[in-house]
Amino acid sequence: MASTLNQKEATDNQNSWDRLLPDFPKGPLCRYRKKASFSWKEMAMFLNGEDIIQFKNRIFSSLENDPLFAHHPGEDLRREKYQELTFLRCKRLFEYDFLNQQELLENPLKIFNMILCLGMYDWSLCIQLLLHSGVFTGPIISASRRFAHIVKQVYNMEIFGCFALTELSHGSNTKGIRTTATFDRSTQEFIINTPDFEAAKFLVGNMGKHATHTVLYAQLYTPDGQCQGLHSFLVQIRDTKTLLPMPGVMVGDVGKKVGQNGLDNGFAMFHNVRIPKENILNIAGDVTAEGKYSSSVKDVKERFSAALGSLSNGRIMITALSTTNLKLALAIAIRFSAARCQFGPTEDEEIPVLEYQTQQWRLLPYLAAAYALDYFSKSLFENFVEFYAGVLTKQRNQRQADLGREIHALSAASKPLASWTAQQAAQECREACGGHGYLAMNRLGDIRNDNDPNCTYEGDNNVLLQQTSNYLISWMNCIRDKVPFESPLGTINILQDYHHILGWKFTAVSVEDCMDSSVPLAAYKWLVCYLLRESYLKLSKEKQAGLSDFEAKNNCQVYYCRSLAIAFIEQTVLQRYHDYTHDPTVPPALQPVLKNLSALYGLWSLSKHLAMLYQGGYASGEQPGRFIQNAILELCYRLKDDAVALADVLAPPDFILNSAIGKASGEPDLCIEMIKISFSSEVNNKPEVPGVFYIRLLRVAEIDLLIRAILQTGACYSLQYSIQFRVEIDIKETTESTAVWMRLSLYHHVASKEVMLSLAVLTLREDLKASTALTQHSPRQELVTKQIHPPQECRFNSRFFSLTFNTPCRQWQCYLQHFEAIKCYLSLHENLLNTNPDAGSKKDIEVLENVQRRAMELVKELKHESCEEWLRELGVFSLGKRRLGDDHSYLKGACSNIGLGIFSQIISYKTRGNSLKIMPGEV
Ligand SMILES: CCCCCCC/C=C/C(=O)SCCNC(=O)CCNC(=O)[C@H](O)C(C)(C)COP(=O)(O)OP(=O)(O)OC[C@H]1O[C@@H](n2cnc3c(N)ncnc32)[C@H](O)[C@@H]1OP(=O)(O)O
């Protein structure tokens, strides 16, 4: 009976997993998926839970089915266009309203996941939304209820926000900020001024083009001439209707960046800009009508930390954003490594590159880090939710203050750890995928470049690490005075055993002994205590030598305080992950792989501190180092067959991952991607370059892929162009083989001229796996003609089957029929060759002509088919459907919706400059 129940439970589970997590398409990755020691679906359910998976699916499918979110293949989207599109998308996200207040309160992890889902799709969009509805709105919500109407305007997108702290000459050093806000008693206003160019607000996300309001950080001056320190103010910088700068504000875009170019980063200078007294965000302090400064926080330092408190939230999110980049890069590189075969034990046999020890060692520790950091970032976010609830309910007890300090210390180190790990991983993954990794279409370059600012914004990584080491060193007084202590989250509680831990030694006596994360965890505890002692001693010594606090601190960073902060955060991440993976409630089938990941993350991270372990006497002799290295390699080997399933758990759907080599099937369809890119960039940017696509077809099935690629690409770009297709099939015989070449000529109308587009020569290799390469094929001149043929002309001779159709791209049904005819033609031809191998070489003109005639007849017959049937057959129904009818509707919709909101604008399909322009008569 019990076993029947268990069986039923197992079946129910399986059904629910299958419903939420569909199987992946068959392909070369199947062999690894079969070898996995666990079910990826069970793992995904365990890590996320049904509710979150459903929620993520809803977001992913909404983006995939919305034409506004269609990808623009290649990297040729101009910056202005990309920024404009990002803004339209951001606005559209509010229309989706993925998360209501109730859902958010019930499960705050939903907002966390929503942000990450958007980031997986595009970081510019994600950061734009975060800056507007989080970084800008957070301090406003925390300040006072008097801003409720502003918050409403934020969520209606009636205003658009940014967060202006950084200045041209002051980024990390917030105390050095020089913008001023002087209170004017006579008008009950603050006057905002930028003293000089160097104090201009700089690099502020959303400020470049779109923001109408900013949370502005400035030194507050009371009428008595006293500077009361850094405070934040709500300032309008642009007119909400015209987007023209407000009087006294000079604002603009800072130009192209290394990454995230869909985001408009800007600068601003203020000259006697007056804002009402109520616009001070009174988190740290306020000013009375008489101009007296008042604050419930008496201590200046505490006031400073209250003013900057909102940055902790940002750093926690950046920890998670970086971890997401780590996950994306790993998903791509592991899938590629499992499908890509290169070299082998014999000349005839090539093996997947994942089988090589070096490849495992390069990638799998990062995979383990992705799992550990993923868990950590979620748990830290949950800690923050607890803290933020206290902020909103105005709790002022000791625990709340201690929790704030601890979260600040953790996030100031977890941001550096996660962003650096992701940065290094993205580069390693890029290289591990060779030339394919270098191609923009595979997204590793974008992941690396878009991750890059995570190391800098919300505080430079190295500067922030000092906050963590300061926090740790601050506990030395309690240790020295033997005063009992603990922190709300318990992360510093190991220091209670400081003296005892300093006496620990490395005790493992074999490699097998090291295969559990308890071994690196013990070493980390020792390392944290050791580095704390060394940093403290060094600091004391420097001070005793007569150096100022400032100089002493400066001399204690490298090899001391900096290493301490890094070791502490790695130990904390590992501790949490170790506890999680060793919890008895983990499903038995998942325990071994999760424990392996935990051990690998711990040992690999620890291996970077080997010198320190020896230097401090924790390890001695040859064995500890050897054991750790061999255990890392053994764990990589043990995880190798699980790697694809582990990557599957992390990877979003193909549309979101948007990487040809990262596809779930392991079939990169590079041909399609290249055509899309070549086609789209030519159409989009260089319309007057003449050219032809030559595509060599070895299997009839391939034409389906091409049709899909062309349709999808056309779907993105046909809105502005009427495109003509001309297709010629050239059956080319050599002594070794018969090859079918398809020449696809694309024309479009530019100023009523017909221009031939794009020259790209593609060769598909037989297996279509990862091996598409651009090759030199000299096009035969007799085939190249720039003449447009009359519509729907068919021409035959013994080798060529040529169809030209002169149709606006929007009318899909026209050219679908023609493609179908070509397909029939090729099928018949292929059948012919299969049944009669001599047919090709004998140049049996009569037979070929019969085939061609039949294909011609098919074209006529096919005209009566409904276009929707064609689309469904080709699997592009939804894409096609939303283009049928009013082709411009999606853009019109998006833009006109904005028009209904704050921004009156001229909708322009020309993308030069900001399309948000002033309506005639409004100025
Ligand atoms: C959701 C995010 C998405 C991505 C967002 C992307 C957009 C990016 C926007 C930006 O980048 S905006 C601006 C970025 N700039 C910064 O982040 C500034 C970095 N600098 C600082 O935060 C501070 O200047 C500092 C380096 C942390 C402090 O340096 P300073 O030496 O001047 O002060 P201390 O003496 O160290 O600190 C005094 C006191 O205050 C405590 N404290 C500081 N920050 C916080 C905080 N966030 N929370 C709580 N407490 C804080 C600090 O620990 C000290 O306390 P004690 O040690 O004295 O107890």
UniProtKB/TrEMBL annotation:
UniProt cofactor(s): FAD
Keywords: FAD, Fatty acid metabolism, Flavoprotein, Lipid metabolism, Oxidoreductase, Peroxisome
Subcellular location: Peroxisome
Catalytic activity: hexadecanoyl-CoA + O2 = (2E)-hexadecenoyl-CoA + H2O2; hexadecanedioyl-CoA + O2 = (2E)-hexadecenedioyl-CoA + H2O2; a 2,3-saturated acyl-CoA + O2 = a (2E)-enoyl-CoA + H2O2; tetracosanoyl-CoA + O2 = (2E)-tetracosenoyl-CoA + H2O2
InterPro entries given in the database record: ACO, ACOX_C_alpha1, Acyl-CoA_Oxase/DH_mid-dom, Acyl-CoA_Oxase/DH_mid-dom_sf, Acyl-CoA_oxidase, Acyl-CoA_oxidase_C, AcylCo_DH-like_C, AcylCoA_DH/oxidase_NM_dom_sf
Keyword Signal tagged: no
Nucleus is among the record's keywords: no
Major site of localization recorded for this protein: other
Pfam family name, one: Acyl-CoA_dh_M
UniProt domain Acyl-CoA oxidase C-terminal: residue ranges: 518-667
Domain Acyl-CoA oxidase C-alpha1: from-to ranges: 309-473
Gene3D superfamilies, sorted: Butyryl-CoA Dehydrogenase, subunit A, domain 2, Butyryl-CoA Dehydrogenase, subunit A, domain 3
Pathway terms, separated by semicolons: Lipid metabolism; peroxisomal fatty acid beta-oxidation
Domain Acyl-CoA oxidase/dehydrogenase middle: from-to ranges: 162-273
The family this protein is said to belong to: Belongs to the acyl-CoA oxidase family.
PANTHER family xrefs: ELECTRON TRANSPORT OXIDOREDUCTASE, PEROXISOMAL ACYL-COENZYME A OXIDASE 3
Protein name as it appears in the record: Peroxisomal acyl-coenzyme A oxidase 3
Gene: ACOX3
